[in-house]
Specification:
4-stranded antiparallel sheet, single chain, 12 helices, alpha/beta
Amino acid sequence: MTRPNILFVTVDQWPASLTGYEGHPTILTPTLDQLARNGVRYSRAYSECPICIPARRTMMTGTTAKQHGDRSFDPALRMPDLPTLPGLLRDAGYQTLAVGKLHVYPPRDRIGFEEVHLAEEGRPHLGGYDDHELYVSDQGFPGQGFAHGMNNNDYLWRPWHLPEHCHVTNWATWKLCREIKRRDPTRPAFWHLSYTAPHPPLIPLQAYLDIYRDAEPPPPAWGEWAEDEATQPYALRAIRDYWAHVKPHHLRGIQRAFMALCTHIDHQLRLVIGTLREEGLLDETAILFTGDHGDMLGAHGLWAKRLYYEDSARVPTLLIGPAGDARTPAGTVDDRLVGQADILPTLLDFAGVETPAHVEGLSMVGGTRREVLLGACREDASATRMATEGRYKLLWYPCGNVVQLFDLQEDPGELHDRSADPSLAPVRARLEAALVEGAWGADLDWVRDGRLVGMPAREFRGQVNRGLSGQRGHHFPPPPIMDASVVVGTPG
């Protein structure tokens, strides 16, 4: 049997709910909608740790932070001594190529890919040249990739400031299409296309802003539990404080700019699929589309990621097998609990490669399903944990030992905290027990006699943001190398 090519597409910070196939009333995602009709969409796919670096380590190793070592975002942490998805496929005879964001250290570590064309969101200070920035320089704009003045960790917006072909979404698409044409025809291919958008900076093309000029997106959800900020866990207060400058009247512009970045990706993805079709490869290619995490986008007064509410933790996930593959019947919705550790065994399944025994993930086309999915993010006062059975989801904030419980079937917007509801006491006990059983590292100090006890509540104090959330500058000449372990642009 001929082994299929594999196209693995990721986006950064795109909530699963912000898609046409999930019924969003405003967003335009015609390509993703068609892919959902062509294969399987996973309605309960989550990021085990909804932060960029930990999520990508999970995708590439098939392991959670307990094995790969990071649930807090450590920019100077090397990849663990574990087999990677591209390395396993390369060793099995695949040609392996990545275009876009890898978010590894050092930045030019290929982690098993034979070739990498990198777009790392303006991080030359970590060492290693960024191929997208080199391309922008070659087009006559050296160091001007961030001259728009927007920020990677904020919600300012404006149109892209350089010619359209210099936009990182166009560049990544063009580069992958060219590499598909330059493939080795004697070997199957694993192509990883990693778009950096819609993660800020919010700098869409004017043409896509124009599409949404008259759009009226729905207002973000606002739960009753979110009304009194003073009673909220430390992790939530830190996020609200960090983005306190984002005012309600900014929301419509932010939503439009964010959706414009999403639709831009959706349209560019058509070029990749069109290239596969014209090269005679589409019917023999498996396609997996997903994201590393979502974005709260103002829901419950919260922004960005690092949380386990649906908009932050649930990711769009579509799987289309080669033509005629019975494992991905067209138009199917699969409600199994999926984590990003499942990506590696799933794609190895299509390649006919055995999954290593240490891998924690489960194949998304296999018969084994998990009953509970756990999530863990951060190890300080901003730590948050999740346990979900699918319908019910429990969130735990160790600082102050705060628990929330949501019935996602009756309350998909997570408006009503049911943790004190006596009728759901057995559900709460069951999910708390799952967190106790899965505790490791710092969590062991927050568990006593088989119960969650957390840590004492901490007085909240606002933060000083001298670096403007890690604002980029002009990159010609390149900035000096800096200490890679210094984290910028995050609330805490």
